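Researcher: I'd like a structural prediction for the single chain below. Treat it as a standalone chain; there are no partners to consider.
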Amino acid sequence: MNKFILQLEGLAVFVLSVYFYFYLQFSWSIFLVLLLAPDISAIGYIKNVKVGSILYNLFHTYSIPLILMICGFLIHNDSIIMICLIWIAHIGMDRMFGLGLKYPTKFQDTHLNRV
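Model: Treating it as a single chain, here is the predicted structure.
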């Protein structure tokens, strides 16, 4: 049941991010091109599971894009806001599909699998 709630939360984050992205009239094509960009962080798994999980988690936590988005609003930079909304949408989409933050044991071992 807890995993379902976290997946529902991910859906809400995804939908809201997409809504605000298109409300602000940003480009559909840029959205589609960059939506999976945070997954490049999985390249850390080439080194080892510990480095991979740290790098992956760094790009799959809401804190960094939220802080950057606030900065984007404060300095009136649409590019930063656009990228952060895509980034947050990606994280929400991952959570919606049951993909969570990684533990340093193996790639499939996530916080959503342990809930």
